[in-house]
Description:
Strand content: 15-25%
CATH topology: Endonuclease, Chain A
Largest sheet: 4 strands, mixed
Distance between the termini: 19 Å
CATH class: Alpha Beta
Number of domains: 1
Strand order of the largest sheet: 1-2-3-4
Structural class: alpha+beta
CATH superfamily: VSR Endonuclease
Oligomer: single chain
Helix content: 40-55%
CATH architecture: 3-Layer(aba) Sandwich
Radius of gyration: 14 Å
Amino acid sequence: MKPYNKNLKQASRDLRNNMTDAEKLLWPRLRNKQILGLQFYRQKPILNFIVDFYCPAANLVIECDGGQHFTKEGLEADQIRDKALAQLGLKVLRFDNVQVMKQIDDVVEVVYQYCLQKSP
């Protein structure tokens, strides 16, 4: 089990209730064990972060990145976050919101192929 910050529980709940358009489009493709029977969670607190999507069986985090992630500060924060998650053995797949909105099938295929490599 990954470190869980119970102080982020309400923030996580709020994010689930206010997902971005990209997250709303991707979530129906991940939920209900549609990819290789793997369970995904949305807006999951890990360490001091809330990741967009998390699959414990594949040690996978999926992030849908909006414009704020492409500023100097955003890129630096993401690097720190990705490094901390990698130290827990997690792989972070990042997708630009525009990519999710316009190429959802390609995004799902990347996730599927990664999970396929990680499944026993």
